[in-house]
Amino acid sequence: MSEQRTRPTVYAVWLIIASIVGLTAAFALTVEKFMLLENPQDALACDISPFIQCSKNLESWQGEVFGFPNPIMGLMGWMAPLILGVAILAGARFPRWFWAAFGAGVTFAFGLVCWLIWQSLYDLFVLCPWCMITWAVTIPTFFATMLHLTRNGTFTSNEMVRARADKLMVWVPLASILAYAVIIMLAQLQGLDFLGEMARIIF
């Protein structure tokens, strides 16, 4: 069986929402990159403080890890889950190899995000606002996708495992919140007062 018995509507809606948010962040970062190239001496709109800014990330080698600005990957990569989410809502069904390929892409994105988080915290010592938005949607997308690929038969044909994965889907938001909490804790331990900076900006 290559697909879940019922249409995964909630998962599809999440893919669409995450893609729109991810595309928005990638587009904003791309625009900021252009502005930085045109006026390297000027501060960017996302340069909120020494701890929270885009400039340092965009100018670093980590910001062009594959030889071109990372936001371009976001502009291209988020189109896949957007199209997939719309296709699922339209009733489309996909073979096992397709889901496996999609899962591989999401896993790559998650791995890259984890690496970029590490680089931001332990090498660059800054947090990029638009990058954090990308992290915020990539993490739950990875969790939800891995569970979905388990419940729809891509990873296993064991009915008990598939049923358990289906029940675990409701815990994706909590797992994501815990992941965010770990990132914030690591930032605080590194001396990046994320919570303090956010409170100062808001209030």
SSE inventory with pairings:
Elements: H1 9-38, H2 55-59, H3 70-77, H4 79-89, H5 96-124, H6 129-151, H7 159-168, H8 172-189, H9 194-202
Written account of the structure:
With 203 residues, the chain is mostly helical. The chain has a single domain (9-202), classed as Up-down Bundle (de novo design (two linked rop proteins)), CATH 1.20.1440. 70% of the residues lie in helices and 0% in strands. The chain has nine helices and no strands. Helix 1 packs antiparallel against helix 6 (129-151) and helix 6 runs antiparallel to helix 7 (159-168).
Comma- or semicolon-separated keywords:
203 residues, mainly alpha, de novo design (two linked rop proteins), globular
